[in-house]
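Dock pyridoxal-5'-phosphate; give full complex structure.
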Amino acid sequence: MKSKPHLRQMHKATKAIHAGIGDSVFGEVSVPIFQSSTFSFPSAEEGAARFAAEKTGYIYTRMGNPTINALEKCIAALENGYAGMATASGMAAITTVCLALLDNGAHVVSTASVYGPTHTVLEKEFSRFGVEATFVDTSNLDNVKQAIRANTRMAFIETPANPTMAVTDIHKAAELAHLHDMIMVIDNTFAGPYLQRPLDLGADVVVHSMTKSINGHSDVLAGMIVTKNEKLYQRIKPVLNLFGGTMDPHQAWLVLRGVRTMPLRVERSVENAQKIASFLMQHPKVRWVRYPGLPDHPQHTIAKKQMDGFGAMICFGVKNGLEGGKTVMNNVRLFTLAVSLGGVESLIEHPASMTHATVSRNERAQAGIVDELVRISVGCEDFNDLRDDLDQALKRIQR
Ligand SMILES: *Cc1c(COP(=O)(O)O)cnc(C)c1O
């Protein structure tokens, strides 16, 4: 059996297909699903040695499993990190990192428009354990500077952020964080490791919802943590094992299957997104378009510098506000009305009438969610069909 250590030097599309795969037993090409909760020890001495970490070898799936391990190696290689830790969901990755790295009395500076549940966890749940959080627009680093206190231990940054599509300069944010002895965590879900590698730019920890573009088929919930060094890995890994937000082997196998086509899927969806953004820019029923790939995006230059492509998420404002948004939702035939992102199928969402309909208009506006805002996750379909579908739905807007 040949292992593939040379893969670390290869390109990202090769890593997505080969990294982590290689410890075969019978020459199998796909990683088997080791659907076993526990692993036998050949002797008492061997069992003791494994528990003492004197010998490598599996013990119990919450602590490690060959299928899960293959996926961890693959994503760690893609992120150019030290090691990966697979989790049950993206939220399990985020909460595990916070549980491991934040003590009572600590303070976090976070991107204001982080993923909703992340905002709630930091604001409402961790405050129960004496952890404080300040939410600022991190695309302007002066805001971060002003928010830092003596007890600030972590910067939690999402870029591009949702739904504003604001981009934070990862390299500069990392310099600022390290100047103040803070750990910088990046939620890299939106861009994914194929388009953006925060550890190369100075971040300490990357978290992912692999539910999105890494798996890419809208059929699995999964998360991943990757650290830049062994020290951070050793701080987080025991916490994950103890709190138990770990992954199941079958889940790992599905994501391994998904990640092997990630390069193809991401390239196609980014190509489609760029064309759709240009199409929307010229549409008479569209008031504005926010996409990091458009020259009028406020952080277009930073996005160009730190991303290999501008992603597959677009936000735009339609004419006739709330009604206009509803009209589009109720008339698209190919786009699917759903939250989530990064799948092969294109999704569309109108926060004001759907996910955030119960939130007051004022609160929505504060979070950057204006009535006219429509968000799309561009998939891998033929561009012409996607364009035609949006066009016919937009044309039905009255004013
Ligand atoms: C979906 C998402 C999450 C949460 O991931 P789950 O797998 O749903 O738990 C976290 N961050 C971002 C940016 C997401 O899009």
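Observed: The longest strand covers residues 152-158.
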